[in-house]
Design goal:
The chain contains four helices and 16 strands. With 349 residues, it is α+β, with helices and mostly antiparallel strands. The protein has three domains: 60 residues, no CATH class; 117 residues, Thrombin, subunit H (Beta Barrel); 109 residues, Thrombin, subunit H, CATH 2.40.10. The two termini are 27 Å apart. InterPro entries: Peptidase_S1_PA (IPR009003), Peptidase_S1_PA_chymotrypsin (IPR043504), Trypsin_dom (IPR001254).
């Protein structure tokens, strides 16, 4: 009976997907010579589409081949900023970002209310913090790209929204310490890459940003104790603080003399009056690529802090370079699903 069902699944998959190999996310598409044992898998809840030159192979059976590198669709370039913005008639003040200046910055909404930030790392995938998603359902979450002023709908380049259809939170996330605090949001359809909607580059595994000055951009409260939420996107430039110094500084606070900084975290800030405050959670900490000051890579994710803007009290960020290998398989999955299959999956949710 099971064999009959398998043959039936094969028959329908050939009709629906033109003989493509459809792999579950626990498998990988590789050349036949790189697979000990080929296994046809048909799991429409989580799919990877193999080319005609590849076979579907359980990851434990892959030999002589590493994961495919995570790349963007042809013709696009990650981390491209618009230093002068995209609306020359729009005046900005203080720390306000120019419209479209950092086009990977995402705004997250639940039931129409802004609750945090995220970063577009692929046209259909957003990286954010796990802690801001606690007790939230994907059914009510929307991601807005190309946003600048939360209180206005009159931007020259209007923002676009997508529905979240799946949330993946790191399996070892600890709310109490902020360790491994990251999550992925899968969108119902990918954003089209445009000047005001771009992806940000991911760092290489283990990359160290200590000693550099980097940037956070997004929306949040103006102060720790205040209730006013920024409506226009703002940027804050912060120094990356080395881990030992950060741990020492945090031990001088209410964290206590025994505080241990998790190796999944990095620190930034510690300058009087310059910091991210509540509601910036999930936003990107990004640094310019060496040799190209107008392109950026993702160093961290806004995690937690002790109030905000205190001298010698850095803020805490999830270190993205520590999780590149956790992120990459999900990027592969997003890039390998063709548009017609995405539509089929959406219509059967």
């Amino acid at each position: 009976m099971l064999r009959a069902w398998a043959l039936l699944a094969l028959f329908w998959s050939c009709i629906l997907f033109s003989n493509a190999h459809i792999c579950a996310s626990s498998h990988q598409c590789v050349p036949k010579e790189n697979c000990r044992r080929e296994e046809p898998i048909f799991d429409l809840s989580s799919t990877i589409d193999c080319s005609d030159l590849e076979v579907c192979c359980e990851k434990s059976n892959v030999i002589g081949k590493k994961h495919r590198p995570s790349t963007l669709p042809p013709g696009s370039l990650c981390g491209m900023s618009n230093p002068n913005g995209l609306d020359e008639n729009q005046r900005v003040y203080g720390n306000q970002v120019r419209p479209g200046q950092f086009p990977w910055v995402m705004a997250l909404f639940t039931k129409g209310q802004y609750f945090g930030g995220g970063s577009l790392i692929a046209p259909g995938l957003v990286l954010t913090a796990a802690h801001i998603l606690v007790r939230k359902s994907s059914v009510y979450i929307k991601v807005r790209a190309g946003e600048w002023d939360l209180s206005s709908s009159g931007e020259v380049d209007p923002p676009e929204e997508r529905q979240v259809i799946k949330i993946i939170i790191h399996e070892a996330f600890k709310y109490s310490s902020g360790a491994k605090n990251l999550a992925l949001l899968f969108l119902d359809s990918p954003f089209e890459i445009k000047p005001h909607i771009q992806t940000i580059c991911l760092p290489i595994p283990g990359q160290n940003f200590e000693g550099r000055r980097c940037m956070v951009a997004g929306w949040g409260k103006r102060s720790f104790a205040g209730n006013e939420l920024l409506s226009i996107q703002e940027k804050i430039e912060l120094p990356i603080v080395d881990s030992l110094r950060c741990q020492h500084q945090l031990r001088q606070t209410r964290m206590g003399s025994n505080y241990q900084l998790s190796d999944s975290l990095i620190c930034a800030g510690g300058e009087q009056g310059k910091d991210v405050c509540p509601r910036f959670g999930g936003s990107a900490l990004f640094c310019a690529l060496e040799g190209d000051p107008n392109r950026y890579e993702l160093a961290g994710i806004v995690n937690w802090g002790i109030e905000c803007g205190q001298e010698n009290v850095p803020g805490i960020y999830t270190s993205v370079s520590k999780f590149k290998e956790w992120i990459d398989p999900h990027l592969e999955q997003v890039f390998s699903v063709p548009g017609d299959l995405v539509f089929f999956m959406r219509s059967h949710l």
